[in-house]
Amino acid sequence: MSRGMFYSARRSAAVLALHAALTGDRTSRDVAENLLDFLYFESDLCQGPRGDRRHPAYGLIGWGTTAPAWQVAHYGDDNARTLLATMALDALAKMPCN
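Given the sequence above, the corresponding C-alpha cells read:
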C-alpha cells in the first residue's frame, strides 16, 4: 500500500465511522474497523521499532512504508488523524447500530 493509500485510509476510516454513527450503516462501520485494524496490526506503520516498547518511537504511527525516509518519519497531524478515527470508531462501538 502506498503512502497516499495510507493517508486516504486514515481519513476514510474517520468519515466511515461518522457515517455509520449518523445512519446506522453497518457496512461503513465494518470498513472503518477493517481499515484501522490494517493500519495498526497488518501494515508496517505500527510495527518494527514503533512496536518495541524500548524504542523512542514506540506508539507513534509511521508516515508511510514505500520509501526509507517515510518509514522513519512520524508527523503529529497524521498521528492525530489516525487517533481521531480510532476514537470515533470506539465511540461508535458503544452505540447500537440501526
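Helices lie at 3-23, 26-42, 68-71, 76-93. Try to locate this feature in the C-alpha cell string yourself.
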